Amino acid sequence: MHSPSSKFQGLFPASAFPGVGRVPDAMVASVVARILAVPLPSFMHGFGYQSVNMPFVEIYDSNGVVGTGFTYTLDIGATVVKTMVDDVIAPALIGRPLSDWEEGKRTIIALTRRLGATAFTAALSAVDIAIWDLRAKLAGEPLYQLLGGVSRAVPLYGSGRSGQGFSTTELIELSLGYVEDGFAGVKIAIGAHPIDVDVARVTAVREALPEHIPVMVDGSERYSYAQALEFACKASHLGLLWFEEPMLAEKVFEYRQLAQTSPIPIATGEHFQGLAQLQRYLAETGIAFYQPDAALGGGIDVMLEMARAIGRQPEIAIGWHSLGDLHAHLASAVPATTWLEDFPIFERVIASPLRPIAGKVSPPERPGHGIIWDEDALAAYTLTSCPKSVGKLTTTRSRK
Fold first, then answer.
1. In a designed cystine with 47, which of 19, 163, 230, 254 is the match (CB 3.0 to 4.6 A)?
2. CA distance 375 to 367
3. Do both 192 and 275 map to the same domain?
């Protein structure tokens, strides 16, 4: 009889990650998962959320060295993600060598195949990020180096200060603030207003910003094909760098149509989970920019597989979605990267978030992913219960 993972032997081959050979092997001693409710900065409340749920994973080796990983959810789902970590992934890790992770992951994927990708992929992402953080710490290398990369500075754009609830005047002021803070580009959220109103808002921002600062727009999957094309045509004179996620990511045919007809380059990819969805897009759509997210799409090794697939088509670029503190490492390991995004959903729990210098950021040189967590904030925002009667998480105490 074949093992459950035998049909997945092609996934995560050891030859694809040669840096793992430099990692001293260690036993996984424990896997600890918890959920944080991280308050968003006040300027992000215009997106309709006050906080983001953050499943947070710590993986300890037998000597007490710890790697950390994370994912995130909005409104619901965090408890399901934590359950997947606790009940499905952790038992396959604890007591086994760290070097067995790829084989263990293939087995887990095989056993959970009929559960669907969503919550499982989010859980797998958090664990995989923690595994790679731990591996890089044990090797004494920054993550990008373990991944075979060379440190480089990549342009960083800001997108958290552009919520739909701001007036045009506020939107201009906040966008100019990004320029004053040294960011290389600005992204504006659209889709909640009538198309003509959004075109006017984007036009006002574009005219207020220096000419050398690129402007992007994000439709947050709010449009139909016809609406997306209408916006693109009416905003074609603005020279926008890209038009992000105008439609649901599942609408592959419509994205192919839009990529062919839009005068603005189209971007998508933050909701891709695993390599297969990306491969279909690459084969069928002609999308110009892809925006993978390691915390949502499967973790570090899946992101590298995606990046390699994108890199085979040199006319396509990567602009990593959110989490610049983590994705800076992937940007240094992936030549196709042209942009990183600052969307500061975790800024309240990071002690020293990356800041742009001359519009760019480089990955930290500390071993691992190099994110320094604010331990007091992690404790303050950790959730203690999820009452079944209402299905909402409660915090130990509030934190401003």
1. 163
2. 18
3. yes
